[in-house]
Specification:
Structural class: alpha+beta
Largest sheet: 5 strands, mixed
Strand order of the largest sheet: 10-13-14-15-16
Shape: flat
CATH superfamily of the largest domain: Adenoviral Proteinase, Chain A
Number of domains: 4
Helix content: 40-55%
CATH architecture of the largest domain: 3-Layer(aba) Sandwich
Low-confidence stretches: 87-91, 176-201, 240-247
Length: 486
Amino acid sequence: MAFSFVHAADLHLDCPFGGLGEVPAELGHALREATFSAWDRIVQLCIDSRAAFLVVAGDVYNTTDKSLKAQLHLDEFIFTKMEESKTNSQTTSFDQLVTTFSHHNQLPKVLQPHLNRLLLLSNKRKTEAKNRNFTLEATCDQCLQKYKDLMSLKKHHKQKDCNMGKFLVQWMSSKQNLSTLQLDTVIHSNSTVTFPNQKKESAIEKFCATPLSSFSCFHNAKGISGSLVYALGGIISDINCKLPNGSENYLPNPAGRIYYGFIKILLQGVKFDHHHPSTVNFRNISYSTGIDSWFYGSHIDRIGNILTRKTKSSFRYNSSVPIIITEAYFPKLLENPQEANDWVRQTLMELECLDDEGILAERLLFPVNVNSNHWILIELNIKDQTYWPYDPFSPAHPSSSDIVAAELIANAFGEEFGFHFNLQFCDYDFPVQKDGFNCGLFVCLYIISLVLDPSLKPKRFGKSPMEYRILLLAWIIRNDIPTGGI
């Protein structure tokens, strides 16, 4: 990200000039104040140019006379000008963000009415302030909107406009700064492809035929090890089947190819015990808690597809089994609401959960990547006409952005199918994510728990996130998730 900064040196604030008695009084005063005037212009330059920071290198004061006046002048910058600059920046940042975003992007149709409403309310406040001769002195630190005073701001914080404003600011900011890093399609659902290495396919079949309970997986201070790790390492190390263009290796699988890039993301969130012989095939995997180990939508959709296949026969006879909607629904909803709802309608019809009598399913689960940097799970309860977002950081207390995303889905789905949903707390006391990179993993585990055994309502999972990453890979290769696997 590009930025600018200002460099200054040898200020010598309040350094006396010699020979001022021989110059006119006005010029003498200007010369006496010259160092302060120069400093003030430097400060104003920083503010006007929106510099990221100011470097002041050496000799701020005169070496022999560090005057009190000079110290007070510098303190004024640190404690007053910086705060004024911060306030002024906040005052205009919302308008600038909208303007900058609009120059290069188009806001989704679903969000445009909400943005228009905020801009309309903002213009009304500005017009009122101008007509009644007062200033908008209070700025919301969430949505960056300006209000007359702190009392008005306090009322604003209790309104939905604040939550929507915060969501819009975060959404536009994330689109401005979102890395162009994208993972190519990692699952190719083509089971008719022929594989030249039949031995590799047999190795997978042998692994799938062995009960998962017969494998072990251990996690201690040194890392992960065990017979399950060794078995998976043996399969993955034997990848040598290429795509037609030779771009990436993959594992053949009856449910579709599993590309190495897909697998690597799962494994990079695991710290292996490299001193244990079972991890010999994972020596080249580097442990990462950053973006290299973040789940993509394809990971969550793969888990959803496995669960849907496993429970498909139950939907018609057990309406309490949740339907899992693809993670692509939410971005498509922002882009084209009708097309997104057509996806849902098609999914329900394929699962025989939609007929002339209406929707037969009681609950829908929507994995959502909020602002392109955090996975949450949104549940629509059709039977009770309620909705709730499960945020792995705080399942019982979702953020305002989580609630806004859930409200957008509930409103769009309700308009399409004739429901009116209300936000209502759900009593699932799910485990809480303690790190900054496993939100996708926790959403997968929430989905598995809600679909396979919702009666458990686990307060904690029985294994560590690293162990679950290994298990998820095993489940994906076997194309099956055992009931009670959590």
